[in-house]
Amino acid sequence: MSAEELGKRLDPPRTIPAQSIYNWETRGKVARAPLQRRLNLLGICAPADWLEPAKENA
Length: 58
What we know:
Number of helices: 3
Number of domains: 1
Mean pLDDT: 82
Number of strands: 0
Largest sheet: none
Structural class: mainly alpha
């Protein structure tokens, strides 16, 4: 899912910078709590997803 597609799924729609998503996926950065809750409600990720270390790119 692209950053643009993710932004469209949020209610209200908002811009999620691609750099933010990259940092979540590769650098282990964590989204703020309200966004984490919204992503969980949308079924995009679970709270535990933020607690596990980022996977190394092979």
